[in-house]
Design a protein that fits this description.
single chain; 339 residues; alpha/beta; Rossmann fold; 6-stranded mixed β-sheet; 45% helix; 19% strand; elongated; disordered N terminus; binds alpha-L-arabinofuranose
Length: 339
């Protein structure tokens, strides 16, 4: 499932390793020499070794996907005996920056960050680097002048997800279709990249026309509201909906039904995430296709954190591979969905 696309030595991890000459770090180094896992080390040396302390800044809880990601990180921390300091920024980047500053002041061993948007992180990440605290980005990337400000990014390839959604729609419509796009949060990596990948494919198909495109902020209610506005403007000219996530597609389904259109029959819908509610909508015939984007990033995040604390190199970019499911495959796959 995991494809490593780039592998570099983590210079930051070496800084972190030097700075973290704590009893816990030493216990981890020793346990890794003896072949024990860090969890074993903590269990075996519970009396002596300090628990790993990790700060996790989550951007919010705007979608089913986001809540699943939070659970995955929290459950994995508990499983490994990590002391997790969790902060929910409630959709505000300022709150994330404040949380990071608090984690730095608390001298945590590492920070896991799911950033709301791509920009605005240079200063606080430079503070973390100066304090020798490695930062693991999960789910979304950032644009920083100095790439060494974070150790690794663990996330799906959002551009590829956009391409996968577009190529399905092109095939399903024979390359001729008038569609609307429900975009994610403005400035967020998945919104930027999912549009980029989608438009890249559409560029080769002049029969595919995007009538309207607007942000539904990755939420059900906002997705519904924007879809209602689209329907008011374009009505039955809309033949398909591309939603950057499941929740907005679920909101669009409600708007289409209220308008008297049958989602999945009169209007085709494709979304990204692949959560249980979307699979249920596919089984009900109301959603046509989903591109998976796994939020179950806890195990990968803590593998990276533990390596960094031990001073080991971590791949700079860890890509989580995604699959595509059409509604014909939904019933068989539904019992396997974990989020
Ligand atoms: O960054 C991943 C995206 O953020 C998910 O697709 C979406 O559901 C979430 O809010």
């Amino acid at each position: 499932m995991i494809k490593v696309v780039e592998s570099v030595g983590a210079s930051l991890s070496r800084v972190a390793a030097c700075a973290l000459a704590s009893a816990f770090s030493l216990a981890l180094v020793c346990s890794s020499c003896s072949g024990e896992s860090s969890a074993d080390a903590q269990g075996a040396n519970a009396g002596e070794a300090r628990r790993l302390r990790v700060g996790f800044s989550q951007l919010g809880a705007e979608s089913n996907w986001r809540s699943a990601e939070t659970r995955s990180i929290q459950e994995e921390a508990a499983k490994r005996g990590v002391e997790l300091k969790f902060s929910d920024a409630q959709g505000q980047q300022e709150n994330q920056i404040r949380a990071l500053k608090t984690f730095i002041a608390q001298k945590v061993d590492a920070i896991v960050l799911a950033p709301k948007i791509e920009t605005g992180w240079d200063n606080v990440l430079a503070d973390a680097k100066a304090a020798g605290i490695p930062v693991v980005l999960v789910d979304r990337g950032v644009q920083v002048a100095d790439p060494s400000l974070y150790a690794t990014l663990i996330a799906s390839d959002f551009v590829e997800e956009g391409r996968m959604a577009a190529s399905w729609l092109v095939e399903a419509t024979g390359g001729a279709c008038k569609l609307v796009e429900l975009r994610g949060t403005v400035g967020a990596a998945p919104a930027i990249d999912r549009q980029k990948g989608f438009m890249e494919v559409l560029a080769a198909h002049p029969g595919m026309e995007v009538l309207l495109s607007q942000s539904g902020e990755f939420g059900i209610a906002k997705g519904k509201e924007v879809m209602e506005a689209f329907l008011k403007q374009e009505g039955r000219r809309i033949q398909a909906v591309y939603a950057h996530n499941d929740d907005m597609a679920l909101g669009a389904i409600q708007a289409l039904e209220a308008f008297g259109l049958r989602p999945g029959s009169d209007v085709k819908l494709v979304s990204i995430d692949g959560g249980k509610p979307a699979f249920e909508a596919m089984v009900a015939g109301k959603l046509d296709c989903v591109v998976e984007c796994s939020p179950l990033l806890g195990p990968l995040a803590f593998d990276a954190v533990e390596k960094l604390v031990r001073g080991e190199a971590v791949e700079r970019r860890i890509v989580v591979a995604d699959r595509r499911f059409t509604k014909e495959l939904a019933a068989a796959e539904l019992p396997n969905r974990k989020y």
